[in-house]
Specification:
The chain is built from 11 helices and 4 strands, in the order H-H-H-H-H-E-E-H-H-H-H-E-E-H-H. With about 210 residues, the protein is of the alpha/beta class. The chain folds into 2 domains: about 30 residues, no CATH class; about 140 residues, Alpha-Beta Complex (Nitrile Hydratase, Chain A), CATH 3.90.330.10.
């Protein structure tokens, strides 16, 4: 399975920036009409939409790395994170939409996340999903042959390690809490956060010192 970690959803042959007089695409027109209708009906407000977009645009895997670093450093926070992910991240000033569940990797168990129906993803802590996460190949194969898929990412697990696949939905978003490398015990949170990549939080990689 190809797992190029760069997103190339744009046309590589056209690097010209958008111009004010460019024609509006069909999808842009639909989005604009729907937005204006929702505002007109009072379902949302223009200011509310603006704030939501600002939150989404500011989200990145750094948020997830910050959560993990706190969990590695603070046992009480880790316990809360695993019991009530929404409450834990809210204490750090992050506000998920819908249910947020954190699954912990251990020496006996490795977790990996997918959305088999579409590409549901905890954007508020991971930013925008990579292209491979949204691909039909990943969504179909990781459920049936997770070890093979993880091996293609360079992650080979022992036969004794149970692999658990968590399937995200519109109501539930998952994030993996990676195992902390033993040699990093006692490190400050900022340094720990630097070990965490987006793929660690999805489960296709592990944290390494």
């Amino acid at each position: 399975m190809s797992h190029d970690h760069d997103d190339h959803d744009h046309d590589d042959h056209d690097h010209r920036p958008p111009q004010p007089d460019d024609p509006v695409s069909r999808y842009e027109a639909l989005e604009q009409a729907l937005r204006e209708l929702l505002i007109e009906k009072g379902v949302v407000t223009a200011d509310g939409l603006r704030r939501t977009m600002e939150v989404l645009e500011s989200a990145s895997p750094e948020n997830g790395a910050r959560i993990v670093a706190r969990a590695w450093s603070d046992p009480a926070f880790k316990e809360l994170l695993l019991q009530d992910g929404q409450a834990a991240v809210a204490s750090l000033g992050m506000g998920p939409t819908g249910r947020f569940v954190v699954v912990e990797n251990t020496p006996e168990r490795h977790n990996v996340i997918v959305c088999t129906l579409c590409s549901c993803y905890p954007r508020f802590v991971l930013g925008f999903p990579p292209a491979w996460y949204k691909s039909r190949d990943y969504r179909a194969r990781v459920v049936h042959e997770p070890r093979a898929v993880l091996a293609e990412f360079g992650l080979k697990l022992s036969d004794d390690t149970e692999v658990v696949v968590s399937d995200s939905t519109a109501e539930i978003r998952y994030m993996v809490l990676p195992q902390q490398p033993p040699e990093t015990k006692g490190w400050p949170e900022e340094k720990l956060a630097g070990l965490i990549t987006r793929d660690c939080l999805i489960g296709t990689a592990v944290a390494r010192a």
